[in-house]
Write a structure and sequence with these properties.
The protein has about 150 residues and is mostly helical. It contains six helices and three strands, in the order E-H-H-E-E-H-H-H-H. The radius of gyration is 22 Å and the shape is elongated.
Length: about 150
């Protein structure tokens, strides 16, 4: 006897995953998830899409971009739903990214009330004496929050 494949409507996936139907359609347009269509053109999702959507949500909460997530999912053979082993590989790849984000968040927490190296040169309370905006040579934006650069240099 053939095994019956369970399909879910977009509303069911939205309810079960906690993701709005509009986000599911967006994920589908980006190639992160796939659906099939009924004769009436209704989207139907294989129940395994719930795992893919969960991984997308976790990755986004970790600060990964949809491009990062898409690149990782595209490495899976035939874009299959990640297995436990696949999830372990994805997680290990993302650990470096997470370590970098945590370091950045710690720098932000520790330095947010001080100079952030943005080059504004107008903060009277700035602890940086940034003569002639020398920190700009390190790149644009708030250098002290985006890198390991120290504001005591």
């Amino acid at each position: 006897m053939a095994k019956r494949v369970a399909y879910l409507t977009i509303g069911e996936v939205a309810q079960r995953s906690g993701v709005a139907a509009s986000a599911l359609r967006f994920y589908e347009r980006r190639g992160l998830i796939q659906s099939t269509r009924t004769a009436g053109n209704q989207r139907m999702y294989h129940h395994e899409v719930l795992r893919r959507v969960s991984i997308i949500r976790v990755a986004q909460n970790l600060g990964l971009t949809l491009k990062d997530i898409s690149d990782a999912m595209n490495e899976l053979p035939d874009q299959r739903t990640p297995t436990k082993r696949d999830w372990e590989k994805l997680s290990k790849k993302w650990q470096l990214h997470l370590d970098e984000r945590m370091a950045q968040m710690q720098r932000m927490r520790d330095k947010l009330t001080r100079c952030i190296g943005c080059g504004c040169l107008s903060l009277r309370s700035c602890t940086l004496h940034n003569r002639e905006d020398h920190i700009a040579a390190d790149g644009p934006g708030p250098r002290y929050l985006l890198s390991d650069h120290s504001d005591s240099e």
